[in-house]
Target: Ubiquinone/menaquinone biosynthesis C-methylase UbiE
Amino acid sequence: MQRYYERDEEDGRLGGGAGLLELLRTKELVQRYLPAAPASVVDVGGGTGVHARWLAELGHRVDLVDAVPLHVGKAADISGVNAVLGDARKLDAADASYDFVLMCGPLYHLLTLEDRLAAWREAHRVLKPGGHVAAATISRFSSFHDGLYRDLFQHEEFRNLVKSTVVDGHHRPPEDRPFNWFTHTYFHRPEESVQEALEAGFLAPQVFAIEGSARALSDDEMEARFADPERRERLLWALRLVETEPSVLGVSSHLLTVGRKG
Model:
């Protein structure tokens, strides 16, 4: 994971193509549950601060925690964001110290259920009663759909990768392709993140498709729709319509699970 992110490509990932939709949909879903500003927010696994920035601009008090020094250094330059090195499984924060917890990175980099539950439990511990957590996961079938959309099944190694991933959730790129096809990560079925949240003590967790079926659009087509406000809004309307439909959740590249602390 460290070697993957030391390539310093995270800043631009959400700035174009499918990343535009991932960012906007994550933002609008999170804002449904955010308390009024100024609220205290911890952005766990917040990377270079893409989400922390807009949260701070809304007037929230934002602490960002990330395991990659390069990310923390960049996030620390954002006005209104306090960025520190840390581990999602053991946060350096008091019990019930935040109004909202955002986890848009850790869960797919924590490869064992034990570690993922530790991150969920830490989110629950530092959250105030009545507050919400919003946690991103990668869909179990993300690499399968990428193979279809990008014609990656021409590579035997990719076919073997997907065949294994859809069975056990572990996305394991071959050693000779350490970064072309992401890095070793865990891809969730939609119901798995619900069960993890429940085991950590969260109430009524709900899973939302972030990109939904729109992930099939090419980067050029995505950018064209975003450039036209009417086309962009029609796209978002369609995704909202089926964002919680169980039969289509697995089509989305990313999922967002939201739960509440009692």
The longest strand covers residues 127-138. The chain is about 40% helix and 20% strand. Residues 31 and 238 are 19 Å apart (CA to CA). The chain has a mean pLDDT of 94.
